[in-house]
């Protein structure tokens, strides 16, 4: 639940949300995250360099309207200059995929395992009404990328599939940009 709250509200207008911290311990009670067959080490990648202008354009955002939040996070604003936003986070020391399976698989309304060009991932939303979509790509058993997009206008439950659909395309582009 904290993930959606962080994504939906900022301390001040225009301030980007922060991504949640992750853990790598596997839970024995729910489904386990799939292993990554061909790991990619993310230690040399900056979050803002994982997607180019055409990639960000997939979700209707402008790559020029971004704020690098250190090497690990990049925040994008919509082309319209309106509300909403997208955060791309690189996890170098903990797997967001493992964390998603531990905490989200049985509690999120939308939780779909996904294959991003041979790399395991998930497409999820805590609640459909929130309009917030999250795509996670596992790049190694202890690393990964998470893209969180919250609504540009209103929170229309019918828009979640469209938003998540666009983010899955972006997840595939991230894997392609990593040289796979």
CATH class of the domain at 61-180: Alpha Beta
Order of helices and strands: HHEEEHEEEEH
Coarse shape: globular
Major sheet, described briefly? Answer: 7 strands, antiparallel
How large is the share of residues in beta strands? 25-35%
Cross-sheet strand order for the largest sheet: 1-2-3-7-6-5-4
Name of the CATH architecture of the domain at 61-180:
3-Layer(aba) Sandwich
Instruction: Tell me the CATH topology of the domain at 61-180.
Output: Protein Transport Mog1p, Chain A
* Rg for CA atoms: 15 Å
Structural class: alpha+beta
Q: Total number of helical segments?
A: 4
What is the mean pLDDT?
79
Strand tally, please?
A: 7
Q: Unreliable stretches, pLDDT < 50, 5 or more residues?
A: 1-28
Distance between the termini: 33 Å
Query: What is the helical fraction, as a range of percent?
Result: 10-25%
Report on this structure.
This is DUF3558 family protein. InterPro entries: DUF3558 (IPR024520). Residues 13-36 are annotated as: Disordered. Residues 22-31 have a biased composition (Polar residues). Pfam families: DUF3558 (PF12079). The protein is built from four helices and seven strands; from the N terminus they run H-H-E-E-E-H-E-E-E-E-H. The protein is globular and about 40 Å long. Residues 1-28 have low confidence and may be disordered. 21% of the residues lie in helices and 28% in strands. It is of the alpha+beta class and 180 residues long. It has a seven-stranded antiparallel β-sheet with strand order 1-2-3-7-6-5-4, with helices on both faces. It has a domain at 61-180: 3-Layer(aba) Sandwich (Protein Transport Mog1p, Chain A). Strand 4 and strand 5 (119-125) form a beta hairpin.
């Amino acid at each position: 639940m904290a993930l959606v709250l962080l994504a939906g509200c900022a301390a001040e207008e225009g301030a980007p949300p922060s991504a949640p911290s992750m853990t790598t311990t596997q839970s024995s009670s729910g489904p386990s995250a799939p292993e990554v067959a061909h790991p990619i080490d993310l230690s040399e990648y900056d979050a803002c360099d994982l997607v180019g202008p055409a990639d960000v354009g997939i979700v209707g955002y402008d790559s020029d309207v971004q704020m690098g939040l250190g090497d690990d996070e990049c925040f994008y604003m919509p082309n319209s200059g309106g509300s909403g936003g997208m955060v791309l986070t690189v996890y170098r020391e903990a797997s967001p995929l493992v964390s998603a399976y531990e905490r989200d698989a049985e509690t999120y309304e939308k939780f779909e395992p996904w294959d991003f060009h041979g790399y395991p991932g998930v497409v999820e939303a805590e609640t459909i009404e929130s309009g917030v979509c999250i795509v996670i790509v596992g790049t190694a058993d202890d690393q990964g990328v998470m893209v969180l997009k919250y609504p540009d206008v209103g929170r229309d439950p019918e828009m979640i599939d469209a938003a998540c659909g666009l983010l899955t395309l972006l997840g595939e582009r991230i894997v392609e940009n990593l040289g796979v």
